[in-house]
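Escalation from tier 1.

The customer reports that the assembly of two entities below gives different structure tokens on two consecutive runs. Tier 1 could not reproduce it. I'm attaching the input and our single run for tier 2 to review.
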Amino acid sequence: MAADPLVQGPGVPANLLLREAHVIDPRAGIDARHDVRVRAGEVAELGSPGTLDPGQGEEAIDANGRTLLPAFFDPHVHLRTPGQEHKEDLETGTRAAAAGGFGGAIAMPNTDPVLDSAPLLRSLRDAAAREARIPVGFLPAITRGLNGKELTEMAELREQGALGFTDDGRPVASAGMLRKALQYQRLCGGTIALHEEDASLSKGGAMHEGTVSAALGLGGIPSVSESTMVARDAALAGYEDARVHFQHLSCVASVQAVAQAKAQGWKVSAEVTPHHLLLTEEAVRGMDTRMKMNPPLATEDDRKALVEGLRDGTIDCVATDHAPHARDEKEVPFEQAPMGTTGLETAFAALFTGLVLPGVLDLELLVERMTAGDALFDLPTHTIATGKPANLTLIDLDAEWTAGEHGWESRSENCCFAGRRLRGRVLLTVAAGAVVYRERAFSVVAA
Amino acid sequence: MNHLLSIEELDRAGIERIVAQAQRFAEVSDREIKKVPALRGRMVLNLFYEASTRTRSSFELAAKRLSADVVNFAASGSSVEKGESLKDTVLTLSAHKPDAIVLRTPWAGAAELVSKWCPAAIVNAGDGKHEHPTQALLDVYTLEQRRGGIDGASIWIVGDVAHSRVARSNIIAFQRMGARVTVAGPPTLIPRGIEALGCEVRFTLDDLPKADVVYALRMQHERMSESFLPSLREYAAWYQINGRRLGSRQVLMHPGPVNRGVELSGEVVDSPQAVITAQVEAGVVVRMAVLYELLAGVREPRPDPAHPDRSGSPDHPETDHPENVKQLA
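Tier 1 run:
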């Protein structure tokens, strides 16, 4: 692969001293208070609490009582550029990511036009090199225009920095077509990420098929529309010895299908979103269009299976599927509304509040799963270690806030967690060595 | 009651109150001059995004008998066809300050949405496959007239339940009034999970003789092109209510318009068991009762949900006591 797969806008390498932070990095085996020095954008020193003094030009930050984590990585976001900049763009989307504690993200290709050619990828990467607040990678389409019929020029796209491929938003309906992409992967590499949905089963659906859809008179999307495709494509991946990543799992049967594929030794991985881990079809009862997403919110049994899958490692990582839509696009009757919720700015706090505080998941495990998406695309994992680029997020785990109370960094506000009381506020994010986000009220102690 | 968005929000007492009011209005319909001045000076806007003859004219008639001004706004031929959003259309029409908007749309939840955008009282006249609350009220009223109530009665709703807002509203309303409800139809047209509404589900009519009331739903021909059914012929063979299936003591209902020879045979439409024209008559008096309950006696402007600080007091005065109507009349 020729080009560096992640690109970001210009940033100033940070010189910081984070004093007396509670540092948690499950991979590095750290769970203790430290002074952490960042010099020229690299982690320079980890000292016992209260032992390091700020050097010349270093900003000292009182991190006592705060928690320092490796910055999160989101392998599934929609930055809407090119063509839908009224929803989001590279700048607003990555600003939202930084505000959520993310130090890297992968953008999906269902833009207008679809990201399916090398010239388009080049121009998008050029734009990201000017505008992206955090490092961004791109997954171009598997098939041209997401048409499901002809492969994109995958090898050339890889040379130009494609991290992998996806037709996200749509399934690759034809097994024969997907098989060709998997075969071609032997030439060019790149993980193939799959949105799983059998359109002949999901057609006309606006929410999960079940008791709530029956009561509301909304067309239902049965869970089998996802799980049968997961099972099919896992088998194809096994047969072709290919590497596939299943996006946004939403139901019990899909988790089982991934577990079986992994037990076979097939090279599959999977992600789950915060909303599928925390919400169910019950949230749709008020027909709030922010609760309309694809795949749809399912049952409590499904939700529990997803949490369990994330815990036991069947599901490798958390991904937000951040899907911004303009206010007037969502301010319509439920059936007319586009699918999707934003998620970057609330992901950690929502999961910390909904799963860690009640004791369902350990904080270490949540941090591990929120920083695991990069490795699935052959990128280095964020870790807090001397000599490594600083990818850090400083969080006040005790801070309580209402999602959306101060507005959003994202251009859109269609967040399914809006209005919820959440615990855990991101105060500072450092991505690839630069300070990319600072909470407004979070002041400098000494310079 | 500020709006009538779904039957869900009415308890038994609420349904009984409207039915009782409708009974008082029924007397007006029998007069030579079929009009009372109860809503003189009020404006009712019919906003219909779907073709409808009987529901729209029934609402229009109801409003006119109460002396309200009526404006009909049909989505075809209007700005809607030029791509105006529901919200913009509603805000535009709100500028005429209607007191009530009667809304029919092909989208579930649209009535509730609209109630958040404008200060008028919203009457849901059908929102997608979700609800059709005035149909349920008029059906309860009709059964009240015919049978003197439905407490303990067994009511079968037969046919295309999946695509029927009438079915959904009636499953709820009939049960609130004390009836036991069974839905029956081909498995492709019974939505998964419908039993969560409290009804029983059957795929044959074997036990239909146990029903006190048979409520047939309209079968829409386009269902065939989507392969919900092999043929209307086969549907009729298994699910048509005909002379052989309908007992002499059963009451037969249908929301109209009837497909003779499909869900109902011609003989049962014309049979004494059928109350289909009584349902149409009930439509007017029940809708009069609904408009009366929503609009009569509200003297101060309603609070505007979009600008709560701008107009009206949050606790506007009680509606006139229904008894007053007699004096008004």
